[in-house]
Amino acid sequence: PGYSPGFKKPPAMLRLKRKRLRRSEPASVAPLPCGAAPRAHSAPARRNPFSSLENAPRAGGIPQPLERDRRLPSPAGGSPAAAPFWQLLEPVCEDKPARRAEPSERADILALTEDNLPVAVPKVPSSPRHEFPADWSIKTRLLFMSSQPFTWAEHLKAQEEAQGFAQHCRATETNLPQNVQEPKLSTELRCAFQQSLVYWLHPSLPWLQLFPRIGADRKIVGKASPWSQDEALQQVLMSDWSVSFTSLYNLLKAKLCPYFYVCTYQFTVLFRAAGLAGSDVMTAVISPTTRGLREAMRSEGIEFSLPLVEERRTRKQKNSEANLEEVANRLEVCNSMEDGEEAAPSDDDEASFSWLEEMGVQDKVKKPDAISIKLRKEKQEVQVDHKPESLALVKGTNTFTLLNFLINCKSLVAVSGPQAGLPPTLLSPVAFRGGTMQTLKARSINAKARVQLAYEDIFSLEIAGPVMPHALHSLTMLLKSAQRGEFSAVFYTHEPTAVFNTDLDSASSALNKESVQKDLPMCGLHPKTLDQLSQCPTLGKSSIRFLEMKDYAYTWKS
């Protein structure tokens, strides 16, 4: 009497005890708050399934939600100890069995929610504004976080997906209200979301990741590349690439394409239409460059400038002039003409060797030849190779010469390695000849995180792929309406493209906004996006890393 029939089957009883132990183990090892009394029916160590047989019939007596209810209030009780890592993130759907998330995914979300929540980011340098500056760098990943769910971005219907593609191809302008009441039921919002994810790519090789190309050898190595040893196939690929490249340039010249990127294994080129980034002519910026590439461009008659090198040189010149003025003033006070002559530096340092004659050793010391003098003059330019400061700017009709140079440049394609024979990647916001429609990858993740001694629901939306400037602005406009004007975001930048945010046309006259809108009506961008991209860049050599919206106003950190 009093014995359970289950006792006659030890394997079944053992499984039951192990299952119950596994469920309650995180709660049993969690530290108790200060001053809290221990639970009455908890054993000191319940690792042996046969140590407390009297509790076996009541295995299902304490449901799992009660365990969660006991654990969640502990942070609010003022516990100074940090909760264990696995307690910071809990499934949102409590009535369903919890899915086993990948460790990397959970750790990634945890790190971002701890480091990049609005309450955790100190001293955002910018003041709140209704628009953030244009960011011309290419993003590889975006992570949006909000207290409102992103269910409206999940599981698009076939009709909504098709409508989004049609709206992109027709450049349909979508204007959403400031606050969408039911985002999940808004077909207009979901179609606009699909529309903002579309971009165009050439070449299209589904088994290869074609962006980024700089430093991508490890991701491409081992993949099938039949063209690497076949010169005839390489010529076919390059011929097809040249047609697509020329098509993009013609669209850019006609202002039917706002901009596009050419991504090689060594450098990236950004072509921009006239009227964008504060310039009244077509521009092309190349980064990073080397002395060999610049010499080849000069030999082809391409006129270009190195704005960052010239800016640094001008700054040093001004500093030296200021120092010379200070020295001259001091010398005037001392009334010493001889000291003044010694302090004045000669502009032609390399051509003045009178001091050798005074010492009588002018015949014994070998004077530098013309090549050495030239290298000395170009020392500052050579030192910036492969650095952001090596950015080269090409303007106006020279962009067409640059087009022909890139088409015929043999060093544009790698001759060895995993990327051997593979043409550069073309990225565009609009369709072009030979381009393939692609979409950015989007997924939403729901979690719970402890923020200021309390658990809060954290909803995140991850966008992966080559996110270009227009897509970044379009997505933020959608989130502004769908998330009620409150969200934060972390941006991951392709570093070689961050320097594209440098203001290269500060000396040019200010453009009339009305004329810009008039000249670029059919480029396929939303008017608000076009207005943002037409402004002069203000981020310098950096890019936006963190963006936050509160009460429909932006703050950002670069």
From TrEMBL:
GO cellular component terms, semicolon-separated: nucleus
Annotated stretches, region: Disordered: 1-81
UniProt KW keywords: Developmental protein, Nucleus
Start-end of Low complexity biased regions: 36-49
Compartments, record wording: Nucleus
One Gene Ontology biological process: nuclear DNA replication
Chief site of localization: nucleus
Family classification: Belongs to the DONSON family.
Name under which the protein is recorded: DONS protein
Phylogenetic classification of the source organism: Eukaryota, Metazoa, Chordata, Craniata, Vertebrata
